[in-house]
Specification:
The chain is mainly α. The chain is built from eight helices and no strands.
Length: 179
C-alpha cells in the first residue's frame, strides 16, 4: 500500500564495487522483484517452477531452451543492474516478466497434479489462483500509480514552461546512471 500512498520520488542508493556491495545490490534487487514487483507468493512459485524445470527429465537442448528466460534475467542483472549500480522497481520489472514464465510452469504442473490425483481440491486451487491474480493486479496498479504520480513529471512540465530552451542546468551528485 506504500506504493500508492507513499513518497513518489525515487532516490538512488550507491552500491560499492566490493563483494559486500555486489551482494547488497543482488539482495536488494531480488527483494525488489519479490516484494514490490511480483509479490512474494508468485516469486516463490516462480522459483519452484525453475527448480521443477531443472529437475525435469528432458533433453538438455530442450531444457536450455526452456531456461532462456532465466538466462535473459541473469543477463539483464549482470549487464544492466550491476552496471548502473542502482536498484529500483522499474529495473525489476523486466525480470518479473521473465520469472512469471516459470511461475506459470509451476502452476500448470500443480494444476495437472491436482487434477489427476485430488480432483476435489481443484476448486481450492482455483480460489488460490484468483487470489494470486488479484494480488498481482494490485501490485501492477500500485506501480503504475507510483509512476503516474512521480514528481519528475510535474517538474518537467514546470521546466518546459519556465526554463528557456537554451538554458544550462547543473546537477550535483555522485556519478550514477540517470535514465
Amino acid at each position: 500500500f506504500l506504493l500508492l500512498t507513499g513518497d513518489n520520488s525515487s532516490r538512488a542508493v550507491g552500491y560499492s564495487y566490493s563483494i559486500s556491495g555486489i551482494f547488497a545490490l543482488l539482495f536488494d534487487h531480488l527483494k525488489e522483484i519479490a516484494i514490490s514487483s511480483m509479490g512474494l507468493p508468485i516469486f516463490i512459485i516462480s522459483i519452484i517452477g525453475m527448480v521443477l524445470l531443472i529437475r525435469q527429465k528432458i533433453d538438455l537442448k530442450d531444457k536450455l531452451a526452456k531456461l532462456i528466460f532465466l538466462f535473459a534475467s541473469l543477463s539483464f542483472y549482470l549487464f544492466f543492474v550491476q552496471v548502473i549500480r542502482q536498484d529500483n522497481v522499474r529495473f525489476a520489472l523486466p525480470q518479473s516478466v521473465f520469472f512469471s514464465v516459470y511461475a506459470a510452469f509451476a502452476l500448470v504442473y500443480f494444476h495437472t497434479y491436482i487434477q489427476s490425483q485430488y480432483k476435489k481440491w481443484l476448486k481450492y486451487f482455483y480460489a488460490v489462483m484468483i487470489i494470486l491474480i488479484l494480488y498481482s493486479l494490485y501490485l501492477t496498479v500500485s506501480i503504475n500509480m507510483n509512476y503516474l504520480l512521480d514528481m519528475r513529471y510535474t517538474v518537467e512540465k514546470w521546466m518546459k514552461k519556465h526554463v528557456p530552451k537554451d538554458a544550462t542546468i547543473e546537477y550535483y551528485s555522485y556519478p550514477h546512471y540517470i535514465p
